[in-house]
Design goal:
Keywords: Membrane, Transmembrane, Transmembrane helix. Helix content is 76%, strand content 0%. It is mainly alpha-helical. α1 runs antiparallel to α2. The two termini are 24 Å apart.
Length: 72
């Protein structure tokens, strides 16, 4: 008899994503502000969002799954 894997807890996953993405976003804002201080907000976001999305897809989400799989 095969055992099916239990689905990850969405609330736990959301909390982990929050605690990993918040410092990333905050750090990027502080890092980019001196370089983009006179830019419009949409221009800053055009730089910021791709960095965040790429970091989430290839770094943050895989690490959450790898390190917290048993807890999720």
């Amino acid at each position: 008899m095969s055992r099916t894997a239990r689905a990850p807890s969405r609330p736990r996953f959301a909390v982990l994503v929050f605690f990993m993405v918040y410092p990333l976003v905050t750090g990027l804002i502080y890092a980019l502000t001196p370089l983009t201080g006179d830019w419009q907000i949409w221009q800053r976001n055009l730089v910021l969002v791709p960095i965040i999305v790429i970091s989430m897809i290839w770094v943050i989400i895989p690490r959450i799954h790898r390190h917290f799989a048993r807890w999720l």
